[in-house]
Amino acid sequence: INFIDSEFKLKNIKLKNIYRDGIDLDFSHGQINNLSCDNCGNDGIDISNTTLKIDNYTSSKTYDKGISIGENSILEANNINISDALIGIAVKDGSIASLNNLRITGTEYPIAGYIKKETFGPATINIKNLNFLNNKNQILLEKGTYFEFDNAYSKKIDNNVYKKIYP
Q1: pLDDT of 151 over the 80 cut
Q2: Do the Cβ atoms of 83 and 55 come closer than 8 Å?
């Protein structure tokens, strides 16, 4: 599903065995309630220059990212469950992510904040009620990323995070 320059409201969507992104939103504004993505070939949700509010999202077996937030996007999310992805949540390029009740399991990187496109600058990440289980690495954040988590989680702050994840 791809929306470009659109306003939308989606409810009770189940996506399975998707070759690319499950939901791809560009220059849009909207809400999603009750979404599941199972076995996506790229990202479960990919937003760019978009404002999105999402409640109740489950992503499993996603090849790249459970949620990708980029290019000055704003995400407000509640009740998110991501499992088996390269990256659980990626926040990049001047984007702002506020998440509540987030569970991430079995990822290579549970959370990554980085700059992919220099013109946008660092990201902002605020998370409450975060739960991790069986992730291979710690949170990985680009130097300059603003982050606030409700508990002390192991994190690495580094330069060129994007190049470390995608060499």
Answers
A1: no
A2: no
